Amino acid sequence: MAVADSGEQASANGGGKAAPAKSSNSGGMAAKSLPRLALVLLAALLYGQLQAPPPKVPGTPGGPPVTSSRIELNDGRHLAYHESGVPREQARHKIIFMHGFDSCRYDSLPVSPALAQELGVYLLSFDRPGYGESDPHPGRTERSIALDIEQLADALELGRRFYVAGFSMGGEVMWSCLRYIPHRLSGVALLGPVGNFWWSGFPGDVYREAWDVQVAQDKWAVGVAHHAPWLTYWWNTQKMFPASSVIAFNPAIFSREDMAIIPKLANRPYAQQARQQGEYESLHRDMMVGFGKWSWSPLELEDPFPNGEGKVHLWHGADDLIVPVQLSRYISERLPWVRYHELPTAGHLFPLADGMADVIVKSLLLGDD
């Protein structure tokens, strides 16, 4: 009986061979799982590095306090604003000013009190979304900011028409105003406006000449913002190689005349407000929108004032190392209704030069060249 049982057992085990131990099988499976686990952990680590922290929204727990006047927009967001010049009710001319990159509502056009009084100029500046005390706008586009401006003007009862002016990234916004709200405008001033290298209509030689003005690290930063916007936060915060020189305030991007103006920027007591919600919703999203994929090009625009009811002025420094002048030159050639003012020795910061803001405003309001 015992012999028969042994034979049956041997037959059951495949002719007397012992079955593999379960512990050995488990070890093999674990070994095969290790590369997959490492890949998952690496992906999780990379994903975490690519994700920007949530913004510190003004007036919410953990966010900066609200200290400024604000309006509420139709979608529930708030815009913080600052008024200067003569009182709104007494003004003969009302100008809305758009600040540039890494700035806020207090970085307005420095019009002299004397000229403001003489011409009756009211100046309204505001924090663009994600800057200062204006709520962030994750869905921000080149169109949405123009509509924000229109709502701001209506909320403060600026009237049917008003002037707009913008510097640098704020200057680029002027093209959006000309496309989406031209019927609300009395005149426009673009000051050293950022140009998007991928707008349709630029000849290859103009594109290449403008592209080569930039330092190498900015070519990379701008290219990432356009081609891989999801990498923008990581690109500008990693430490392996230089990211945007503008964010880092690299002296190499400032011209000789810019260097003489920089001390004015160093003494701004409110400078930290620009990034107080975090760099992603202010600086990085600014780059993603400004250098993003637009569905239209300023070179396609038609004259917004065909009956001479207003003028468009474009000012640019020939020695601008931050925003290449070549794009502005070409746009002004293509759009004959743009009055182009090129300053032969100026850099990017020319609106802050002594007396320059008054020259710009007089040209905008009175038509002086």
UniProtKB/TrEMBL annotation:
Domain AB hydrolase-1 as annotated: residue spans: 95-350
Region Disordered, annotated ranges: 1-27, 52-71
SUPFAM superfamilies referenced in this protein's UniProt entry, alphabetically: alpha/beta-Hydrolases (SSF53474)
InterPro entries, per the entry: AB_hydrolase_1 (IPR000073), AB_hydrolase_fold (IPR029058)
Compositionally skewed regions (Pro residues) per UniProt: 52-64
Signal peptide: none
Pfam family, one: Abhydrolase_1
PANTHER family in the record: HYDROLASE, ALPHA/BETA FOLD FAMILY PROTEIN, EXPRESSED-RELATED, OS02G0532300 PROTEIN
Protein name: AB hydrolase-1 domain-containing protein
Organism for this UniProt entry: Paspalum notatum var. saurae
